[in-house]
Amino acid sequence: MLIMLTFALQLVKILYMVQQLYLLDFKQGMPIIEQTKKRKIFCYIPLENMLIGNVRNRITSSNGDWQKLLASTSQPLFRY
Question: Within 10 Å of residue 79's Cβ, how many Cβ atoms?
């Protein structure tokens, strides 16, 4: 009985994590984390930009220049 209860609890945890990933990917966009020397820069790239082109190529082509990254995406949301 205890084994079945722990298995059910693990299943609920997995389903909750999948639901959170679904909400993250399809509501807010793709999370991108850039670690700098002083702080961690965290932004969401909306899904409309992911469909237009490859976001990873845009980030690597910007070489850490956030002005170029802003110019290549229509509306990223930054959090510091």
Answer: 8
Instruction: Report the domain count for the chain.
Output: 1
Domain extent, residue 54, equals: 2-79
Pairing mode of beta strands 77-79, 30-35: unpaired
3-state SS class at 50 = helix
Other Cβ atoms less than 10 A from the Cβ of 69: the count is 20
pTM: 0.29
Sequence-ordered list of residues with C-beta below 8 angstroms from that of 30, at least 6 positions apart, any chain = 44, 45, 47, 50, 55
12-58 pLDDT per residue, tens: 887 777 666 555 555 455 555 555 555 555 555 555 544 444 555 55
- Which tokens is 38 given? 């002083």
